[in-house]
Amino acid sequence: MPNATDTLESLREALASFASERDWDQFHNPKNLAMALAGEVGELVEHFQWLTFDEARALPAGTRDEVALEAADVLLYLVRLCDKLGIDLADAARRKLAINAQRYPVDKSQGSAAKYDKLPQR
Amino acid sequence: MPNATDTLESLREALASFASERDWDQFHNPKNLAMALAGEVGELVEHFQWLTFDEARALPAGTRDEVALEAADVLLYLVRLCDKLGIDLADAARRKLAINAQRYPVDKSQGSAAKYDKLPQR
Amino acid sequence: MPNATDTLESLREALASFASERDWDQFHNPKNLAMALAGEVGELVEHFQWLTFDEARALPAGTRDEVALEAADVLLYLVRLCDKLGIDLADAARRKLAINAQRYPVDKSQGSAAKYDKLPQR
Amino acid sequence: MPNATDTLESLREALASFASERDWDQFHNPKNLAMALAGEVGELVEHFQWLTFDEARALPAGTRDEVALEAADVLLYLVRLCDKLGIDLADAARRKLAINAQRYPVDKSQGSAAKYDKLPQR
User: Fold this and answer.
1) What pLDDT shows up at residue B1?
2) Mean pLDDT over all residues of chain D?
């Protein structure tokens, strides 16, 4: 049974209240939010830049927790951006999953990192 | 009432199956996923780079749909990254919201875009 | 008369020595350097995320200096990345300028932010 | 002997003329240019996201040329951004190199990817 607070919709509402209480809607133009998103992803990427694959897979607990909070920042700005644009993020995610299922048929994309437009035609 | 498919947990599961069916776990190292996330955010940002604030607020329907699917890509890679790291993204989001509530008290941060460590001390 | 230390080539050499003296070539794989570049650009973008256009045009001196050093970081990693890939960055820049001159004829792109493949055909 | 066209100053001038001829200064606000920079770095990163370290070191010629032109895009926007901000990029790069030399003494940072504030104190 899904936890109500685990939904994107509940997160969207919490963020809208948070911004409204602080009179932050004036700053939350989609252009600004897209930049904030890019900034947070930059911080997340920095954690991995010098790591080997093995190290990236097995982060020390402290680093993992820092990464978790950076990932949260990315999510919060993403949800907020979509809210300000009137985009239903959960719906978009479902639609994109369906598109990906079409673009990457199981048999053709098996064990391949090729982009869909580079997949072998059969 | 939240839709079960609107939860981050259901998305995590769908993506894990998607990758497993295609034998893609070999590519989904956290380092790679962090890069993929950065790439998708770059694509999202590009949509806004030459826009005024008014234009960013009122995207044409076609652009808005492209942005929705870019936002979905960001979410999908973010969820996948957290899954591979054993991070509970919904929990991290809740924790970060609580941290933000502490860092940005309503009275001190009213109408201010200042970072928490630059807020006026009272 | 150009200053010799103002060239990309002199910068490339300085960075190669810097890394070699510290035994850092082991970390400077192109994949890692591309990530480091993304991280630095994220830091640069953060400076601008909440600013109006007027504010972005007229940064306070302190902020401008911080931005200058972030821009330097971006350049240093970019030059280093190209060096490790055997890419002649100055030559690539000249080639890209020539491509852009072709893609954006002065008369067609006058006062337009449209991407070249969306420019009006005449 | 440095080629005059290899300097950041000559590149700055070429880009200023390019923009002026097309009446593009109206779009080249620092905020917009920072976003364009983020977008281009995203494209560059995408080339490396699924590669192993060995693959990243030995790009096929075609991919390497694509990466070269993406790197050029990053440089062009970076030079343009600095120009619009009145930042001397070559000078900033020299200053940052000097800062890095202080932060990362050869003996302490030998073979270590640790950030300067995590280096062992001796």
Assistant:
1) 39
2) 93
Q: Is B119 helix (H, G, I), strand (E, B) or coil?
A: coil
Q: Which amino acid is at B12?
A: R
Are the C-beta atoms of C39 and A49 separated by less than 8 Å?
A: yes
The neighbour count for residue D54, using CB atoms within 10 Å, is 9
User: Of D86, D75, B76, A63, nearest to C41 (Cα)?
Assistant: D75
List the end-to-end C-alpha distance of chain D, in Å, as a whole number.
41
> To probe the interface with A, which of B1, B8, B45 has the most A CB atoms within 10 Å?
B8
Q: Residues C97, C101, C104, C109: is their CA dihedral positive or negative?
A: positive
Chain A contact residues (CB < 8 Å to C): 27, 32, 35-36, 38-43, 45-46, 48-50
The residue of chain B nearest to residue C51, with distances taken between CA atoms, is B113
**A1-51 confidence digits (pLDDT tens):** 344 557 999 999 999 999 999 999 999 999 999 999 999 999 999 999 999
pLDDT-above-90 percentage for chain B: 85
DSSP 3-state of B104 = coil
**Cα–Cα dist A121/D45, whole Å:** 27
Q: B59 burial class (0-12, 13-18, 19+ CB within 10 angstroms)?
A: buried
Distance CA A96, CA A26 (A): 31
For residues D118 and C54, give the distance between their C-alpha atoms in angstroms, rounded to a whole number. 38
Kind plus residue range of the DSSP H or E element containing D74: helix D61-85
Q: Which helix (H) or strand (E) holds D9?
A: helix D8-21
Residue pair D30/D78 in contact by the 8 Å Cβ criterion: no
Largest CA distance in chain B: 57
Asked whether the predicted pLDDT for residue B2 surpasses 50, the reply is no
Instruction: Work out the burial of residue D90: count CB atoms within 10 Å of its CB; fewer than 13 is exposed, 13-18 middle, 19 or more buried.
Output: buried
Measured in degrees and rounded to the nearest 5, phi and psi for residue C7 equal -90, 155
* pTM, to two decimals: 0.94
3-state secondary structure of D95: helix
Q: What is the CA radius of gyration of chain C?
A: 18
Amino acid present at A27: F
Confidence class for position B5, pLDDT limits 50, 70, 90: low
Query: Which ranges in B1-122 belong to alpha helices (H)?
Result: 8-21, 30-46, 53-57, 61-85, 89-103
Among residues B16, A31, C100, B67, which one has the least CA distance to residue D80?
Answer: C100
CA gap A76, D48 in Å, rounded: 27
Cα–Cα distance measured from residue B71 to residue A81, given in angstroms and rounded to the nearest whole number = 9
Contact between A95 and B72 using a beta-carbon 8 Å cutoff: yes
- Best mutation target among A43, A49, A52, A55 (most C Cβ atoms within 10 Å) is A49
Phi-psi region of A22 (alpha: psi -120 to 50; beta: other; left: phi over 0): alpha
Radius of gyration of chain D, Cα coordinates, nearest whole angstrom: 18
